[in-house]
Amino acid sequence: MTTWLGPEEWQAVALSLKVSFWATLLSLPFGLLCAHALARWRFLGRDVLNWLVHLPLVLPPVVTGYLLLLGFGRQGPIGSVLDDLFGITLAFQWTGAALAAAIMAFPLMVRAIRLAIEAVDPKLEEAAATLGASRIKVFVTVTLPLIVPGIIAGAVLAFAKAMGEFGATITFVSNIPGETRTVPSAIYAFLQVPGGETGAMRLVMVSVAIAIGALILSEFLSRRVAQRISGS
Amino acid sequence: MSLTVDIRRDLGGFDLHTTFDAPEGVTVLFGRSGSGKTSVVKSIAGLLTPQQGRIALDGRVLFDTAARIDVPVHKRRLGYVFQDSRLFPHLTVRDNLCYAARVSGRGSRDPKEVAALLGISHLLDRRTHALSGGEAQRVAIGRALLSEPDMLLMDEPLASLDGPRKAEILPYLETLRRETGLSILYVTHNMAEVARLATHIVLIDEGRVVRSGAPDEVLTDPDMVRMLGIRDAGAVLSATVAAHHPDGLSALSISAGQLLLPAVEAPVGAKLRVRILAQDVILARTRPEDLSALNILPVRVLAVRRGEGPGVVVQLQAGQDRLLARITRRSADRLDIVDGAECYAVMKSVAVSQTDIAVGLQTGL
């Protein structure tokens, strides 16, 4: 790979992998919670939560990126608190890229997990409760094992989406080589300079390969969840 | 353990307002589909919240709107066997059985013993999708038993099974009742199950209790015939096996005399309950001679109920027991069947099938 890809290209691929990995991993618990809430809980503001989760899907990415910059920038209400209390800065850092990717990928992750939860028969959860399982134990011993393939599918989709995130990322954290230049940003940068097409093409091929691989893996795992729940 | 229920809930179509006691033994909650039976059981288990009322198991209050008590489902300690077995598809049979022990720490009962009791020992390592309906339901019963409930709630546990599978499970339910001594609340609209299992009956219609009491009283109440279903109405008698004859018949002694039935699979001296359908009983004013039917019992008419159709239902005193006979109005008039009349009840031996006989159960518990 390193011989085929130039050092800068390889740097972009490695950074994209790192950003997507952390974006997926850290958003997973929140995704699970949101999906469970949307699938099973009845509460005031459920619709609002649903809109919020899906907003990044319909907003122009540059808007999401700009809102992130307003909120999480050094002067922003959340960014300044993070900076003062923990010394964490997100703007123009790879961690910011991870945050942008996580937020853009969140709706896909929640949808996949929510579908898996809704496919679990609530009657099984009722049966578990009559056998002495508290709500948390019902979730851990019945719901969770049945939706594991759905969770993996959601995570794979989110990872693939994070790998391709561009608009929000470049708006929020710019396009700094080695720090925030992910694969899409690198392709964009290549295309801005004469003779950059071959480098761009190599990265395009890497992107396509990763996206297709993720889709196949996600499809396979989704089928597993259906099998597992029907018990065959 | 005895259960006290007094609940109200608006079920849309009608108001559920159910008050009854389920004493020790097997209490059968009987009613047509849509009569509110399942809502009652779900309320007892805590899966449905009544708008008003009180539910208590011996001294332990499970639900009380006045005292603002609503014990959560998982703390009620009631085993629930659903119509569909609801086994966990991601677990093996063994793990399903051990589920309660795993989540609640309850479980001093040995899973192997329970599996043996229910005849599922050979299935322990199977996945649940490989089970037949009858096997799955026995696993579900075992799983509920192993949660060490104070009482077992069974909501039409045999309704989703076909005839042969039902016949396969009924003996296990009888064994269960004998071996564990656990009190059971059993919901059904199948008279054969009522006759074989019930030690107490609660009849429910449109969410209200119409009648409750011992099976021999309730089942032979001519006023209840319409509700129980005219073709299913019949008496349940306690009997003891007196002898097995070489010609394939068994003699059973009942309080009114002797019954000859096709060979019963129980040793001499065994206690049985025998269900005799009202439509299988013929009445005669004088003792008939030269008749193929082998069972002729002297009886006295207690009550005659005329319905809308051509038939009447006659309640009879036969020794200590009661019988029901369904005859035509024309015959009743011709034979002058009125209250207090002495006559003979005639029953064909072959009219009683093996599924109408329950071993080891007495009507009085």
- Mean pLDDT of chain B, nearest integer? 89
| Unreliable spans of chain B | none
> Can you say what the CATH homologous superfamily of chain A is?
MetI-like
Helix fraction of chain B by DSSP (H/I, runs of at least 4) = 10-25%
Quaternary structure of the protein:
heterodimer
From the N-terminal CA to the C-terminal CA of chain B, the straight-line distance is 14 Å
- Give the strand order of the largest sheet of chain B, numbering strands 1, 2, ... along the chain: 7-8-9-3-10-11
Largest sheet of chain A: none
Task: Report the CATH architecture of chain A.
Answer: Orthogonal Bundle
Rounded to an integer in angstroms, the radius of gyration calculated over CA atoms of chain A is 20 Å
Number of helices of chain A: 10
Going by CATH, the architecture of the largest domain in chain B would be 3-Layer(aba) Sandwich
Task: Assign an overall shape of chain A.
Answer: globular
Biggest interface: A-B, 23 and 30 residues
CATH topology of the largest domain in chain B: Rossmann fold
Cα end-to-end separation of chain A: 41 Å
Strand content of chain B: 35-45%
Q: What is the tally of beta strands of chain B?
A: 21
Count of discrete alpha- or pi-helical segments spanning 4 or more residues of chain B: 10
Protein name (chain B): Molybdenum import ATP-binding protein ModC
Keywords (chain B): ATP-binding, Cell inner membrane, Cell membrane, Membrane, Molybdenum, Nucleotide-binding, Translocase, Transport
Organism (chain B): Marivita lacus
GO molecular function (chain B): ATP binding
